[in-house]
Input
Amino acid sequence: MKNATMIVDGKPAESDTRRDAVNPYTGEVWATFPEATHEDVDRAVNAARRAFQGGWSSSSGAERARLMHALADRLESEADAMARMESTDNGKVIRETRNQMGFAARNLRFFAGYADKLYGRTIPLDNPGLFDFTRRRPHGVAALITAWNSPIALLANKLPPALAAGNTVVVKPSEHASVTTCEFGRMAIDAGLPPGVVNVVTGGPEVGDALVGHPGIDKISFTGGTPTGARIAESAGRRLVPVTLELGGKSPNIVFDDADLDRAVVGAVAGIFAAAGQTCIAGSRLLVQRSVYPEVVDAITKRAAAIRLGDPLDASTEMGPVANRPQFERIVKLIEKGKQEGATLLTGGGPATGPDLADGLFIAPTVFGEVSPGMRIASEEVFGPVLSVIPFDGEEEAVEIANGVEYGLAAAVWSRDIERVHRVVDRLEAGSVWVNTYRTNAAQAPFGGIKSSGYGRERGEEALAEYTFVQNVMVDYSGAARDPFSIKT
Ligand code: NAD
Output
Protein backbone atom coordinates (compact mmCIF):
# COMPACT_ATOMS: atom_id res chain seq x y z
CA MET A 1 0.00 0.00 0.00
CA LYS A 2 1.39 3.35 -0.99
CA ASN A 3 0.85 6.31 1.32
CA ALA A 4 1.31 9.46 -0.71
CA THR A 5 2.09 12.75 0.98
CA MET A 6 1.46 16.34 0.07
CA ILE A 7 4.41 18.64 -0.56
CA VAL A 8 4.51 21.94 1.31
CA ASP A 9 7.50 24.23 1.55
CA GLY A 10 9.91 21.64 0.17
CA LYS A 11 8.88 18.91 2.61
CA PRO A 12 6.41 16.02 2.68
CA ALA A 13 3.26 17.12 4.51
CA GLU A 14 0.69 14.97 6.28
CA SER A 15 -2.86 15.62 7.33
CA ASP A 16 -5.04 14.01 10.02
CA THR A 17 -7.45 12.57 7.47
CA ARG A 18 -6.56 10.27 4.59
CA ARG A 19 -8.49 9.26 1.49
CA ASP A 20 -8.32 5.98 -0.40
CA ALA A 21 -7.09 5.70 -3.97
CA VAL A 22 -9.06 2.93 -5.69
CA ASN A 23 -7.73 0.93 -8.62
CA PRO A 24 -10.60 0.95 -11.17
CA TYR A 25 -9.39 -2.34 -12.68
CA THR A 26 -9.44 -4.39 -9.48
CA GLY A 27 -11.72 -2.29 -7.31
CA GLU A 28 -9.06 -2.43 -4.59
CA VAL A 29 -7.63 0.36 -2.52
CA TRP A 30 -4.00 0.54 -3.66
CA ALA A 31 -2.89 3.80 -2.02
CA THR A 32 -3.97 6.57 0.30
CA PHE A 33 -3.38 10.31 0.24
CA PRO A 34 -4.10 13.17 2.65
CA GLU A 35 -7.21 15.33 2.72
CA ALA A 36 -5.83 18.82 3.21
CA THR A 37 -7.32 21.17 5.77
CA HIS A 38 -7.74 24.90 5.25
CA GLU A 39 -4.60 25.34 7.37
CA ASP A 40 -2.67 23.08 4.98
CA VAL A 41 -3.84 25.16 2.03
CA ASP A 42 -2.86 28.29 3.90
CA ARG A 43 0.60 26.93 4.66
CA ALA A 44 1.11 25.91 1.03
CA VAL A 45 0.08 29.32 -0.32
CA ASN A 46 2.25 31.12 2.23
CA ALA A 47 5.22 28.90 1.38
CA ALA A 48 4.70 29.66 -2.31
CA ARG A 49 4.53 33.39 -1.53
CA ARG A 50 7.79 33.26 0.44
CA ALA A 51 9.49 31.35 -2.38
CA PHE A 52 8.18 33.84 -4.95
CA GLN A 53 9.45 36.83 -3.01
CA GLY A 54 12.49 35.09 -1.62
CA GLY A 55 14.29 34.59 -4.88
CA TRP A 56 12.42 32.55 -7.48
CA SER A 57 10.82 35.50 -9.26
CA SER A 58 14.11 37.40 -9.33
CA SER A 59 16.28 34.39 -10.21
CA SER A 60 17.85 34.34 -13.65
CA GLY A 61 15.96 32.59 -16.39
CA ALA A 62 19.01 30.41 -16.94
CA GLU A 63 18.82 29.17 -13.35
CA ARG A 64 15.10 28.43 -13.59
CA ALA A 65 15.75 26.59 -16.85
CA ARG A 66 18.51 24.51 -15.26
CA LEU A 67 16.20 23.38 -12.49
CA MET A 68 13.34 22.68 -14.89
CA HIS A 69 15.66 20.49 -16.97
CA ALA A 70 16.71 18.71 -13.77
CA LEU A 71 13.03 18.06 -13.01
CA ALA A 72 12.52 16.77 -16.57
CA ASP A 73 15.54 14.43 -16.10
CA ARG A 74 14.01 13.15 -12.91
CA LEU A 75 10.64 12.57 -14.51
CA GLU A 76 12.25 10.73 -17.41
CA SER A 77 14.26 8.51 -15.09
CA GLU A 78 11.11 7.58 -13.15
CA ALA A 79 8.76 7.57 -16.14
CA ASP A 80 8.03 3.85 -16.04
CA ALA A 81 7.15 3.83 -12.36
CA MET A 82 5.08 6.99 -12.78
CA ALA A 83 3.21 5.51 -15.75
CA ARG A 84 2.43 2.36 -13.76
CA MET A 85 1.13 4.40 -10.85
CA GLU A 86 -1.04 6.56 -13.05
CA SER A 87 -2.48 3.55 -14.90
CA THR A 88 -3.19 1.90 -11.56
CA ASP A 89 -4.88 5.03 -10.29
CA ASN A 90 -7.11 5.95 -13.24
CA GLY A 91 -7.17 2.87 -15.46
CA LYS A 92 -5.63 4.56 -18.47
CA VAL A 93 -3.63 2.12 -20.58
CA ILE A 94 0.09 2.04 -19.95
CA ARG A 95 0.92 2.58 -23.63
CA GLU A 96 -0.58 6.06 -23.23
CA THR A 97 0.56 6.95 -19.69
CA ARG A 98 4.19 6.09 -20.64
CA ASN A 99 3.92 8.46 -23.55
CA GLN A 100 2.39 11.13 -21.36
CA MET A 101 5.32 11.07 -18.93
CA GLY A 102 7.67 11.62 -21.87
CA PHE A 103 5.46 14.42 -23.12
CA ALA A 104 5.41 16.05 -19.68
CA ALA A 105 9.21 16.06 -19.62
CA ARG A 106 9.21 17.48 -23.16
CA ASN A 107 6.91 20.32 -22.05
CA LEU A 108 9.22 21.10 -19.13
CA ARG A 109 12.15 21.36 -21.53
CA PHE A 110 10.18 23.37 -24.07
CA PHE A 111 9.25 26.02 -21.50
CA ALA A 112 12.68 25.88 -19.84
CA GLY A 113 13.88 27.18 -23.20
CA TYR A 114 11.75 30.29 -22.74
CA ALA A 115 12.80 31.03 -19.16
CA ASP A 116 15.79 33.10 -20.30
CA LYS A 117 14.02 34.53 -23.35
CA LEU A 118 11.09 36.39 -21.84
CA TYR A 119 11.82 39.45 -23.90
CA GLY A 120 9.92 42.70 -23.79
CA ARG A 121 9.82 45.31 -26.55
CA THR A 122 11.18 48.80 -26.96
CA ILE A 123 8.45 51.01 -28.37
CA PRO A 124 9.19 54.22 -30.24
CA LEU A 125 6.76 56.95 -29.08
CA ASP A 126 5.52 60.18 -30.65
CA ASN A 127 7.51 62.16 -28.08
CA PRO A 128 11.21 61.65 -28.75
CA GLY A 129 12.02 62.64 -25.15
CA LEU A 130 10.31 59.54 -23.78
CA PHE A 131 11.81 56.08 -23.88
CA ASP A 132 9.35 53.22 -23.62
CA PHE A 133 9.87 49.53 -23.03
CA THR A 134 7.87 46.53 -21.82
CA ARG A 135 8.73 43.67 -19.50
CA ARG A 136 6.99 40.36 -18.88
CA ARG A 137 6.50 39.88 -15.15
CA PRO A 138 5.16 36.81 -13.32
CA HIS A 139 1.77 37.06 -11.58
CA GLY A 140 2.97 35.56 -8.27
CA VAL A 141 1.46 32.43 -6.73
CA ALA A 142 -0.50 30.30 -9.20
CA ALA A 143 -3.12 27.72 -8.18
CA LEU A 144 -3.07 24.81 -10.63
CA ILE A 145 -6.10 22.50 -10.40
CA THR A 146 -6.36 19.39 -12.54
CA ALA A 147 -8.81 16.61 -13.48
CA TRP A 148 -8.37 12.86 -12.98
CA ASN A 149 -8.10 11.67 -16.55
CA SER A 150 -4.44 12.64 -17.08
CA PRO A 151 -3.04 14.21 -13.89
CA ILE A 152 0.57 14.58 -15.02
CA ALA A 153 -0.12 15.47 -18.64
CA LEU A 154 -2.59 18.16 -17.55
CA LEU A 155 -0.17 19.50 -14.96
CA ALA A 156 2.54 19.57 -17.62
CA ASN A 157 0.43 22.06 -19.56
CA LYS A 158 0.41 24.44 -16.61
CA LEU A 159 3.41 24.12 -14.35
CA PRO A 160 6.22 24.54 -16.93
CA PRO A 161 5.12 27.93 -18.31
CA ALA A 162 4.25 29.07 -14.77
CA LEU A 163 7.72 28.26 -13.41
CA ALA A 164 9.57 29.46 -16.51
CA ALA A 165 7.97 32.88 -16.08
CA GLY A 166 8.97 33.07 -12.40
CA ASN A 167 5.71 32.15 -10.68
CA THR A 168 5.52 29.69 -7.80
CA VAL A 169 2.70 27.16 -7.67
CA VAL A 170 0.28 25.30 -5.45
CA VAL A 171 -1.06 22.24 -7.27
CA LYS A 172 -4.27 20.42 -6.45
CA PRO A 173 -4.91 17.21 -8.37
CA SER A 174 -8.30 15.50 -8.51
CA GLU A 175 -9.37 13.45 -5.51
CA HIS A 176 -9.93 10.60 -8.01
CA ALA A 177 -6.24 10.44 -9.04
CA SER A 178 -3.80 12.24 -6.76
CA VAL A 179 -0.87 9.90 -6.24
CA THR A 180 1.33 10.72 -9.25
CA THR A 181 1.01 14.45 -8.60
CA CYS A 182 2.32 13.89 -5.04
CA GLU A 183 5.22 11.96 -6.57
CA PHE A 184 5.83 14.80 -9.01
CA GLY A 185 6.01 17.23 -6.07
CA ARG A 186 8.58 14.98 -4.41
CA MET A 187 10.60 14.96 -7.65
CA ALA A 188 10.64 18.74 -7.65
CA ILE A 189 12.42 18.60 -4.28
CA ASP A 190 14.78 15.86 -5.51
CA ALA A 191 15.59 17.95 -8.57
CA GLY A 192 16.69 20.82 -6.33
CA LEU A 193 13.88 23.30 -6.79
CA PRO A 194 13.90 25.70 -3.83
CA PRO A 195 11.35 24.97 -1.06
CA GLY A 196 7.95 26.47 -1.75
CA VAL A 197 8.33 26.80 -5.52
CA VAL A 198 6.23 23.68 -6.12
CA ASN A 199 3.63 22.75 -3.47
CA VAL A 200 1.05 19.99 -3.75
CA VAL A 201 -2.13 19.82 -1.66
CA THR A 202 -4.60 16.97 -2.05
CA GLY A 203 -8.29 16.47 -1.36
CA GLY A 204 -11.68 17.11 -2.87
CA PRO A 205 -13.68 20.11 -4.09
CA GLU A 206 -13.54 21.82 -0.64
CA VAL A 207 -9.75 21.91 -0.89
CA GLY A 208 -9.96 23.28 -4.43
CA ASP A 209 -12.47 25.87 -3.26
CA ALA A 210 -10.25 26.94 -0.35
CA LEU A 211 -7.31 27.29 -2.72
CA VAL A 212 -9.20 29.27 -5.34
CA GLY A 213 -10.63 31.61 -2.70
CA HIS A 214 -7.34 32.12 -0.85
CA PRO A 215 -6.34 35.80 -0.84
CA GLY A 216 -2.72 34.82 -1.54
CA ILE A 217 -3.49 33.38 -4.98
CA ASP A 218 -2.63 35.63 -7.93
CA LYS A 219 -3.47 33.35 -10.83
CA ILE A 220 -5.65 30.28 -11.35
CA SER A 221 -5.38 27.65 -14.03
CA PHE A 222 -8.06 24.99 -14.01
CA THR A 223 -8.75 21.86 -16.03
CA GLY A 224 -12.01 20.10 -15.36
CA GLY A 225 -15.72 20.18 -15.98
CA THR A 226 -17.57 23.23 -17.30
CA PRO A 227 -19.83 23.70 -14.23
CA THR A 228 -16.79 23.66 -11.90
CA GLY A 229 -14.94 26.04 -14.23
CA ALA A 230 -17.84 28.48 -14.11
CA ARG A 231 -17.87 28.34 -10.30
CA ILE A 232 -14.13 28.98 -10.17
CA ALA A 233 -14.40 31.89 -12.60
CA GLU A 234 -17.12 33.41 -10.39
CA SER A 235 -15.01 33.06 -7.27
CA ALA A 236 -11.94 34.46 -9.07
CA GLY A 237 -14.06 37.26 -10.50
CA ARG A 238 -14.87 38.52 -7.02
CA ARG A 239 -11.16 39.18 -6.47
CA LEU A 240 -10.37 39.84 -10.15
CA VAL A 241 -7.81 37.05 -10.25
CA PRO A 242 -6.89 36.04 -13.83
CA VAL A 243 -8.03 32.54 -14.80
CA THR A 244 -7.25 30.01 -17.50
CA LEU A 245 -10.02 27.47 -18.03
CA GLU A 246 -9.67 24.19 -19.91
CA LEU A 247 -13.10 22.62 -19.76
CA GLY A 248 -15.27 20.06 -21.46
CA GLY A 249 -16.00 19.35 -25.09
CA LYS A 250 -18.26 17.61 -27.58
CA SER A 251 -15.93 17.68 -30.51
CA PRO A 252 -17.04 16.95 -34.08
CA ASN A 253 -14.99 14.70 -36.32
CA ILE A 254 -16.26 15.50 -39.83
CA VAL A 255 -15.75 12.96 -42.60
CA PHE A 256 -16.43 14.14 -46.16
CA ASP A 257 -16.96 11.68 -49.00
CA ASP A 258 -13.64 12.58 -50.66
CA ALA A 259 -11.59 11.63 -47.55
CA ASP A 260 -9.20 8.72 -47.22
CA LEU A 261 -11.79 6.67 -45.40
CA ASP A 262 -9.39 4.11 -43.91
CA ARG A 263 -7.47 6.87 -42.20
CA ALA A 264 -10.65 8.63 -41.18
CA VAL A 265 -11.87 5.48 -39.43
CA VAL A 266 -8.58 5.17 -37.54
CA GLY A 267 -8.93 8.84 -36.60
CA ALA A 268 -12.46 8.26 -35.38
CA VAL A 269 -11.28 5.36 -33.19
CA ALA A 270 -8.43 7.48 -31.81
CA GLY A 271 -10.90 10.27 -31.19
CA ILE A 272 -13.37 8.38 -29.04
CA PHE A 273 -11.97 5.06 -27.86
CA ALA A 274 -8.44 6.07 -26.88
CA ALA A 275 -8.37 6.63 -23.11
CA ALA A 276 -11.85 5.07 -23.05
CA GLY A 277 -13.19 8.38 -24.31
CA GLN A 278 -12.14 10.14 -21.12
CA THR A 279 -10.43 13.04 -22.78
CA CYS A 280 -11.64 16.57 -23.13
CA ILE A 281 -10.83 16.44 -26.85
CA ALA A 282 -12.79 13.23 -27.46
CA GLY A 283 -14.21 13.20 -30.98
CA SER A 284 -17.53 12.12 -29.57
CA ARG A 285 -19.59 13.22 -32.58
CA LEU A 286 -18.69 11.58 -35.87
CA LEU A 287 -20.32 13.55 -38.68
CA VAL A 288 -20.33 11.47 -41.86
CA GLN A 289 -21.43 12.54 -45.33
CA ARG A 290 -24.42 10.44 -46.29
CA SER A 291 -22.88 8.99 -49.50
CA VAL A 292 -20.14 7.22 -47.49
CA TYR A 293 -22.14 6.79 -44.29
CA PRO A 294 -22.83 3.00 -44.59
CA GLU A 295 -19.20 2.22 -45.37
CA VAL A 296 -17.77 4.35 -42.56
CA VAL A 297 -20.30 3.19 -39.99
CA ASP A 298 -19.67 -0.44 -40.87
CA ALA A 299 -15.88 -0.05 -40.50
CA ILE A 300 -16.01 1.87 -37.23
CA THR A 301 -18.53 -0.54 -35.72
CA LYS A 302 -16.34 -3.55 -36.59
CA ARG A 303 -13.21 -1.87 -35.19
CA ALA A 304 -15.01 -0.79 -32.02
CA ALA A 305 -16.29 -4.31 -31.40
CA ALA A 306 -12.75 -5.67 -31.79
CA ILE A 307 -11.09 -3.30 -29.31
CA ARG A 308 -9.02 -5.26 -26.79
CA LEU A 309 -10.23 -4.49 -23.28
CA GLY A 310 -8.16 -5.56 -20.31
CA ASP A 311 -5.58 -4.80 -17.66
CA PRO A 312 -4.36 -1.23 -18.19
CA LEU A 313 -0.86 -2.33 -17.15
CA ASP A 314 -0.69 -4.83 -20.01
CA ALA A 315 1.03 -3.18 -22.99
CA SER A 316 -1.28 -4.97 -25.43
CA THR A 317 -4.49 -3.60 -23.87
CA GLU A 318 -6.19 -1.00 -26.04
CA MET A 319 -8.87 0.18 -23.64
CA GLY A 320 -8.88 0.01 -19.86
CA PRO A 321 -11.70 0.55 -17.39
CA VAL A 322 -13.15 3.99 -16.85
CA ALA A 323 -11.50 5.82 -14.01
CA ASN A 324 -14.01 5.83 -11.18
CA ARG A 325 -17.47 4.69 -10.15
CA PRO A 326 -19.32 8.05 -10.48
CA GLN A 327 -18.00 8.35 -14.03
CA PHE A 328 -18.97 4.74 -14.81
CA GLU A 329 -22.51 5.35 -13.63
CA ARG A 330 -22.82 8.57 -15.55
CA ILE A 331 -21.74 6.87 -18.79
CA VAL A 332 -24.19 3.99 -18.32
CA LYS A 333 -26.99 6.48 -17.73
CA LEU A 334 -26.21 8.45 -20.88
CA ILE A 335 -26.04 5.26 -22.95
CA GLU A 336 -29.51 4.35 -21.69
CA LYS A 337 -30.68 7.83 -22.62
CA GLY A 338 -29.35 7.30 -26.15
CA LYS A 339 -31.36 4.09 -26.47
CA GLN A 340 -34.51 5.78 -25.16
CA GLU A 341 -34.09 8.70 -27.53
CA GLY A 342 -34.18 6.32 -30.48
CA ALA A 343 -30.57 6.30 -31.68
CA THR A 344 -29.56 3.02 -33.36
CA LEU A 345 -27.25 1.02 -31.12
CA LEU A 346 -24.64 -0.58 -33.41
CA THR A 347 -22.26 -2.07 -30.87
CA GLY A 348 -21.62 -1.98 -27.12
CA GLY A 349 -24.38 -0.39 -25.13
CA GLY A 350 -23.41 -0.85 -21.50
CA PRO A 351 -20.94 -2.35 -19.03
CA ALA A 352 -18.52 -4.99 -20.34
CA THR A 353 -17.59 -8.09 -18.39
CA GLY A 354 -15.25 -10.95 -19.17
CA PRO A 355 -12.47 -13.18 -17.85
CA ASP A 356 -9.77 -10.54 -18.41
CA LEU A 357 -11.80 -7.73 -16.98
CA ALA A 358 -11.48 -8.57 -13.26
CA ASP A 359 -13.85 -6.36 -11.26
CA GLY A 360 -13.02 -3.45 -13.49
CA LEU A 361 -15.30 -0.57 -14.37
CA PHE A 362 -15.43 -1.49 -18.05
CA ILE A 363 -17.79 0.01 -20.58
CA ALA A 364 -18.08 -1.74 -23.92
CA PRO A 365 -16.99 0.51 -26.80
CA THR A 366 -20.32 1.88 -27.91
CA VAL A 367 -21.42 3.23 -31.29
CA PHE A 368 -24.80 4.83 -31.90
CA GLY A 369 -25.86 5.41 -35.51
CA GLU A 370 -28.48 7.73 -36.99
CA VAL A 371 -28.05 10.10 -34.08
CA SER A 372 -29.81 13.40 -34.53
CA PRO A 373 -28.21 16.61 -33.27
CA GLY A 374 -31.02 17.24 -30.78
CA MET A 375 -30.40 14.06 -28.77
CA ARG A 376 -28.63 14.27 -25.43
CA ILE A 377 -25.85 11.92 -26.54
CA ALA A 378 -25.19 14.36 -29.39
CA SER A 379 -24.95 17.45 -27.23
CA GLU A 380 -23.83 16.43 -23.73
CA GLU A 381 -20.28 15.47 -22.85
CA VAL A 382 -20.28 11.74 -21.99
CA PHE A 383 -16.56 11.49 -21.17
CA GLY A 384 -16.63 7.81 -22.02
CA PRO A 385 -16.28 5.39 -24.98
CA VAL A 386 -19.55 6.36 -26.61
CA LEU A 387 -19.64 7.54 -30.21
CA SER A 388 -22.60 9.32 -31.80
CA VAL A 389 -22.56 9.04 -35.58
CA ILE A 390 -24.55 11.78 -37.28
CA PRO A 391 -25.19 11.76 -41.04
CA PHE A 392 -25.10 14.98 -43.09
CA ASP A 393 -25.62 15.89 -46.73
CA GLY A 394 -23.44 18.88 -47.53
CA GLU A 395 -20.80 21.25 -46.22
CA GLU A 396 -23.31 23.78 -44.96
CA GLU A 397 -25.16 21.22 -42.88
CA ALA A 398 -21.90 19.74 -41.53
CA VAL A 399 -20.75 23.12 -40.25
CA GLU A 400 -24.14 23.86 -38.74
CA ILE A 401 -24.21 20.56 -36.83
CA ALA A 402 -20.55 20.87 -35.82
CA ASN A 403 -21.12 24.33 -34.31
CA GLY A 404 -24.53 23.53 -32.83
CA VAL A 405 -23.34 22.63 -29.33
CA GLU A 406 -22.33 24.76 -26.36
CA TYR A 407 -18.70 23.57 -26.54
CA GLY A 408 -15.83 24.71 -28.75
CA LEU A 409 -12.72 22.76 -27.81
CA ALA A 410 -11.65 20.74 -30.84
CA ALA A 411 -12.80 19.60 -34.28
CA ALA A 412 -11.44 17.63 -37.21
CA VAL A 413 -12.01 17.68 -40.94
CA TRP A 414 -11.31 14.67 -43.15
CA SER A 415 -11.11 15.57 -46.85
CA ARG A 416 -8.66 15.57 -49.75
CA ASP A 417 -10.16 18.76 -51.16
CA ILE A 418 -7.88 21.55 -49.96
CA GLU A 419 -10.39 24.27 -50.82
CA ARG A 420 -13.15 22.57 -48.89
CA VAL A 421 -10.81 22.04 -45.93
CA HIS A 422 -10.05 25.76 -45.70
CA ARG A 423 -13.67 26.78 -46.19
CA VAL A 424 -14.79 24.50 -43.37
CA VAL A 425 -11.91 25.26 -40.99
CA ASP A 426 -12.70 28.97 -41.41
CA ARG A 427 -16.18 28.43 -40.04
CA LEU A 428 -15.58 25.93 -37.24
CA GLU A 429 -16.12 27.21 -33.73
CA ALA A 430 -13.24 25.36 -32.06
CA GLY A 431 -9.95 26.31 -30.44
CA SER A 432 -8.12 23.37 -32.06
CA VAL A 433 -8.76 21.96 -35.50
CA TRP A 434 -7.15 18.89 -37.00
CA VAL A 435 -7.11 18.11 -40.69
CA ASN A 436 -6.81 14.45 -41.69
CA THR A 437 -5.69 13.51 -38.20
CA TYR A 438 -7.08 13.42 -34.67
CA ARG A 439 -5.70 13.64 -31.14
CA THR A 440 -2.19 14.66 -32.09
CA ASN A 441 -0.45 17.34 -30.07
CA ALA A 442 2.87 19.09 -29.60
CA ALA A 443 4.58 21.23 -27.00
CA GLN A 444 4.81 24.04 -29.56
CA ALA A 445 1.15 24.08 -30.62
CA PRO A 446 -1.26 26.18 -28.51
CA PHE A 447 -4.28 24.39 -27.11
CA GLY A 448 -7.53 25.60 -25.58
CA GLY A 449 -11.19 26.19 -26.15
CA ILE A 450 -13.87 28.76 -26.82
CA LYS A 451 -17.54 28.91 -25.74
CA SER A 452 -18.25 26.56 -22.81
CA SER A 453 -14.89 24.84 -23.34
CA GLY A 454 -13.16 27.71 -21.57
CA TYR A 455 -10.62 30.41 -22.35
CA GLY A 456 -6.91 30.94 -22.33
CA ARG A 457 -4.29 28.79 -24.02
CA GLU A 458 -1.91 26.09 -22.86
CA ARG A 459 1.25 24.86 -24.57
CA GLY A 460 3.03 26.85 -27.24
CA GLU A 461 4.39 30.35 -26.79
CA GLU A 462 0.83 31.53 -26.06
CA ALA A 463 0.89 29.76 -22.68
CA LEU A 464 3.49 32.19 -21.36
CA ALA A 465 1.00 35.02 -21.72
CA GLU A 466 -1.24 33.22 -19.19
CA TYR A 467 1.43 33.37 -16.51
CA THR A 468 2.81 36.87 -17.06
CA PHE A 469 1.56 40.41 -17.14
CA VAL A 470 3.03 43.10 -19.34
CA GLN A 471 4.62 45.96 -17.46
CA ASN A 472 5.12 49.08 -19.53
CA VAL A 473 7.94 51.39 -18.45
CA MET A 474 8.12 54.98 -19.71
CA VAL A 475 11.28 56.98 -19.03
CA ASP A 476 11.50 60.74 -19.52
CA TYR A 477 15.03 61.60 -20.53
CA SER A 478 14.25 64.98 -22.11
CA GLY A 479 15.32 66.97 -19.05
CA ALA A 480 12.64 69.50 -20.08
CA ALA A 481 10.24 71.26 -17.69
CA ARG A 482 6.60 70.29 -18.20
CA ASP A 483 3.10 71.61 -17.57
CA PRO A 484 1.94 69.64 -14.50
CA PHE A 485 -1.75 70.26 -15.32
CA SER A 486 -1.81 68.70 -18.77
CA ILE A 487 -1.07 65.10 -19.61
CA LYS A 488 2.23 64.77 -21.43
CA THR A 489 2.20 62.91 -24.75
P1 NAD B 1 -14.24 18.35 -12.03
O1 NAD B 1 -14.62 19.70 -12.53
O2 NAD B 1 -15.23 17.59 -11.23
O3 NAD B 1 -12.93 18.43 -11.12
C1 NAD B 1 -11.73 18.97 -11.59
C2 NAD B 1 -10.90 19.46 -10.42
O4 NAD B 1 -11.56 20.54 -9.77
C3 NAD B 1 -10.66 18.41 -9.34
O5 NAD B 1 -9.34 18.57 -8.85
C4 NAD B 1 -11.68 18.79 -8.28
O6 NAD B 1 -11.34 18.38 -6.97
C5 NAD B 1 -11.66 20.30 -8.38
N1 NAD B 1 -12.85 20.98 -7.90
C6 NAD B 1 -14.12 20.52 -7.86
N2 NAD B 1 -14.94 21.48 -7.39
C7 NAD B 1 -14.18 22.56 -7.13
C8 NAD B 1 -14.44 23.87 -6.63
N3 NAD B 1 -15.67 24.27 -6.30
N4 NAD B 1 -13.41 24.72 -6.53
C9 NAD B 1 -12.17 24.38 -6.88
N5 NAD B 1 -11.85 23.15 -7.33
C10 NAD B 1 -12.85 22.25 -7.47
O7 NAD B 1 -13.80 17.56 -13.33
P2 NAD B 1 -13.36 16.05 -13.43
O8 NAD B 1 -14.58 15.19 -13.29
O9 NAD B 1 -12.20 15.80 -12.53
O10 NAD B 1 -12.82 15.97 -14.92
C11 NAD B 1 -13.64 15.76 -16.03
C12 NAD B 1 -13.84 17.04 -16.78
O11 NAD B 1 -12.60 17.65 -17.08
C13 NAD B 1 -14.52 16.83 -18.11
O12 NAD B 1 -15.53 17.76 -18.31
C14 NAD B 1 -13.41 17.06 -19.11
O13 NAD B 1 -13.83 17.48 -20.37
C15 NAD B 1 -12.58 18.07 -18.42
N6 NAD B 1 -11.22 18.07 -18.97
C16 NAD B 1 -10.82 19.13 -19.74
C17 NAD B 1 -9.56 19.15 -20.31
C18 NAD B 1 -9.10 20.30 -21.17
O14 NAD B 1 -7.90 20.46 -21.34
N7 NAD B 1 -9.97 21.11 -21.72
C19 NAD B 1 -8.70 18.08 -20.08
C20 NAD B 1 -9.13 17.03 -19.30
C21 NAD B 1 -10.39 17.05 -18.73
